[in-house]
Design a protein that fits this description.
Layout lengths: L4 H35 L50 E4 L1 H4 L22 E2 L2 E2 L9 E2 L2 E2 L8 E5 L5 E13 L7 E8 L5 E2 L3 E2 L6 H13 L7 H15 L3 E8 L8 E12 L16 E8 L10 H11 L5
Parallel strand pairs: 1-6, 7-12
Antiparallel strand pairs: 2-3, 4-5, 7-8, 7-10, 8-9, 8-13, 11-12
Bound molecules: 2-acetamido-2-deoxy-beta-D-glucopyranose.
2-acetamido-2-deoxy-beta-D-glucopyranose binds next to loops.
């Protein structure tokens, strides 16, 4: 009656097996699509970046040192909730920070150190974290994302969150509007290309930091002749008038320690028609070796989390990626 029945059954079994095997991936794919849809175009909310375990914040050798080695923390022991009795983080604070410049706190572990108010705006210093309330353990703030293998402040000035701002200034490479370019500066300290961001000064609002850092690092406004300065300021006004938030929160940065860490606000300022920023004369400032319009491609290698930021920006503008 059904001569091909065994064949049909065999095929059905294969189909079911394939579906089952892929079920997980299909589910995951669907979840990603829904996520994309909810957090995508038009949403003002920061992009929900996949939360990653400390990766850069567990780099073997602390940046700009030769021999400061972090205590090795396995993936499974990053979280403070996992007991790790053998844990003995290396205590390191750079000489530059110890010297007590204006951007650095005093050592709160010293007996007569001035009191720092954490988890609030302490005088003019913003000590609140985007991650919520962080814990204070033995007088020191504790990294909300877990262990890093190093305690003290490393080369970061503030105990707890160190706030930065990253302006991502973009334009189209040409009239096809397929490839997006952004203003990148080459850092003097390690030669890596990066977004021309910087630390939020005490008492400064982020919008001012974004503009100031871009002006200083990518346009070298310090050294521009006065009449050019006026022109630059006007263009900057126009460009920085409207931006979209790309990310705000904790950053997995190689300088992070158990007691001090980077947080940032990354904003995109886009020149759709290439008639404002496109006309800027880029000029590397003090902290930079070079500055350029860099194509955003899958291969673009950037400092710390900057790679994730420009990827998000490219996707937002539906650029080739
Ligand atoms: C302080 O930082 C928090 C995030 O940690 C931010 O939401 C808030 O706007 C900042 N406040 C000021 C006055 O800059």
């Amino acid at each position: 009656m059904y001569p091909y029945l065994p064949v049909y059954i065999g095929l059905a079994v294969i189909v079911v097996a394939v579906v089952l095997q892929n079920k997980y991936q299909i589910l995951q794919f669907l979840i990603f699509q829904v996520n994309d849809f909810m957090g995508g175009k038009g949403s003002k909310a920061a992009v929900n970046m996949n939360k990653k375990l400390h990766e850069k914040a567990r780099c073997a050798i602390y940046p700009r040192t030769k021999d400061i080695k972090r205590f090795v923390v396995p993936d499974s022991k990053v979280s403070w909730t996992v007991p790790f009795p053998e844990y003995k983080p290396v205590d390191f604070t750079s000489e530059g920070v110890k010297a007590g410049p204006v951007w650095a706190d005093k050592d709160i572990r010293e007996p007569n150190a001035p009191v720092i108010k954490f988890n609030c705006i302490d005088g003019v210093i913003n000590r609140t974290s985007f991650t919520g309330k962080y814990e204070i353990v033995n007088k020191c703030p504790r990294n909300p994302e877990g262990r890093t293998g190093l305690c003290g402040r490393g080369s970061l000035g503030r105990w707890g969150p160190n706030h930065a701002a990253d302006p991502i200034v973009t334009r189209w490479k040409n009239s096809e509007k397929k490839i997006l370019q952004f203003v990148a500066v080459q850092r003097k300290d390690n030669g890596e290309w990066a977004i021309p961001g910087g630390m939020v000064d005490a008492g400064e609002v982020v919008s001012v930091t974004l503009r100031r850092e871009f002006g200083e690092e990518a346009l070298n406004t310090f050294e521009a002749p006065p009449e050019e300065k006026v022109h630059i300021e006007k263009s900057l006004d126009k460009l920085f008038h409207s931006g979209t938030e790309v990310y705000k929160g904790y950053v997995d940065d190689p300088r992070n320690t158990d007691n001090a860490w980077m947080e940032t606000v990354a904003m995109n300022f886009h020149d759709e028609n290439g008639d404002s920023v496109g006309l800027f004369k880029l000029n590397a400032g003090d902290d930079a070796m070079g500055v350029q319009w860099m194509d955003i491609t899958r291969q673009t290698k950037l400092y710390a989390s900057h790679e994730d930021f420009i990827k998000t920006v490219a996707q937002r503008h539906k650029a080739t990626w």
